[in-house]
């Protein structure tokens, strides 16, 4: 049925109500000008919540090409919080399905929850703007990580990379941060697992002509991105946008050295400089410059130890721990025994080192005596194996001492956190960064400890004293966020229980 406007008194057609004309015109205009890039789509659907910078525009154009051109292979490395996941994983998924509702998309991240977060955002945009996009969600009940477009075979499967993908193919495969952090990247075993999953599972799901887009942080030269760029350089387009242009670092924006990127979250050059000082070189280059800080060569620099050195041990630390890397054979091979304290302002101070070749009874007694002399309230023993045995050895030795204060015996890592058990470099990532940025410092001088620390190289045996410090450092930084301190007024001494249970008048 055709509806016409009633003529006015002069015989001219009456105007349609303005609201109806505007809505029809707007809908027609939008249908004619459907966005062709994730960036344009973001401006349409997200408005002021989505800021288009030169970096975002470049990423959006590259992703649009990957969606429209068969067999594309794209790698994107951009600083965190610069809209790369929104542009690629969320808007890229929506654009791919709006362009071809039969397209099957797989989105994988290091864990289910991150992939599901991106999936939920993409699904919400389609639910809200389906009329504008020309698609709508199927009505059947689906999981947050698996849904499809009504009347079509296309949709999204979002999952963790190690979850195992079966029964699903991909016209577009998106990998967004499939490595969680530096510790995972430093683990040779984990890198092999990621590569095996990529080769053996994910790539086998890509349909003929399907495209692959990878977003990631370059924590290690031999990570998945490094492997692909080294073995298939002609196959992969690499879009790297460093926070600050620097000679020798690829820059897809082709800026002169020293020029800072326009940040979607408004970071200034001064704020980027402050981030670099806070993070240390490895995290800065991996996260913000898009290149791995190679672990080859010495891992700890003497300049770090000298720059942050404390004149002496802290006088009133919040907590002191003795970390132990026990000798394996019990027949006099090397054992690491190090004491460290947590200062009131959150710095870990290395205060003593008693590492030496010892039998099991000798290292147990040395750890107890060090705890007694330094006031340590905990002896934490690295125990990937023989956990119960190590605890028993120390407790039996402790029974022969008249302790001046309570000392508890624990094993590390905590039960249920046994990852990276054979990879010393991965376990040491937090400690190495702490030495670089000054949150872990040497108190006074520990010549033998320092000599061994600054000569440790990747691929060589980790000094036992450093292994012991990894334990103590981890225990202390965990405690920093979980300890409460109560102060009792000294003017009227009472017990803590009486003070907390007192009646407060007024």
From TrEMBL:
This is Terminase family protein. It comes from the Bacteria. The lineage of its organism: Bacteria, Bacillati, Actinomycetota, Actinomycetes, Mycobacteriales. It comes from [Mycobacterium] crassicus. It holds the Pfam family Terminase_6N.
